[in-house]
Amino acid sequence: MEGSKIRTNDKTIMEKKMRKIILLFAAFLSLPAFGQSEEDTLAIKKATLNYIEGWATGNVERIKESVSPELSKRRVASAGDLVFVQDMSQSLLCAAALSNAKGVRMQDLTPGKDLAPEIKILDIDGTNASVKTWNAKYGFFDYIHLSKAGGKWMIINVLWDMNSIK
User: Which 8-state DSSP code applies to residue 111?
Assistant: First the structure.
């Protein structure tokens, strides 16, 4: 009988320790990831809007504010059996934006409505982030990679394509 009390006490002590460990672990998991502050979230959204709205309105300064000179923007396309990659640099993006200042040369799928892009931050991990954007007006989406250097979020890579027809 004496031995069963000791085992019960040992079991109770062990259960209490395990509860504490589980609670500490759960508290740790609920903490935001390093670098994932509200300030970063807002800066990432601002950089993304500068890219999209700068392109649509011909505002090259907004593009240069948020898009790295080393930008690699790509789209996989095809012509018959030939599959190829269309590449665009920051300078070509700016040139396209300048021509858009006179009116976007893509079909406006929502005439009379604003651009209103949807932005979804997929991941922020330290100084890197992934974002997906969609816009109904011109019917395309972007997967965007950003990196934070010198306290500033800049777009480094973009993979884009036309929205799927549903």
Answer: T
| Nearest of 157, 152, 159 to residue 47 by alpha carbon | 152
- pLDDT of 29 > 90? The answer is no
Alpha-carbon gap, residue 133 to 118, rounded angstroms: 5
| b (16+ CB within 10 A) / e for 113-124 | eebebebebeeb
The answer to whether residues 144 and 34 touch, using CB atoms and an 8 Å cutoff, is no
Longest CA pairwise span in the chain (Å)? 91
Q: How far apart are CA 89 and CA 60, in angstroms?
A: 13
Find the helix packing angle between 90-100 and 38-57, rounded to 10°. Answer: 60
E-strand spans in the chain? 67-79, 82-88, 118-125, 128-135, 140-149, 152-162
Q: In whole angstroms, how large is the CA radius of gyration of the chain?
A: 25
pLDDT at residue 115, rounded to an integer: 92
SS3 126: coil
Domain ranges of the chain: 1-31, 38-162
Architecture of domain 38-162: Roll (3.10)
Task: Provide the pLDDT for residue 78.
Answer: 94
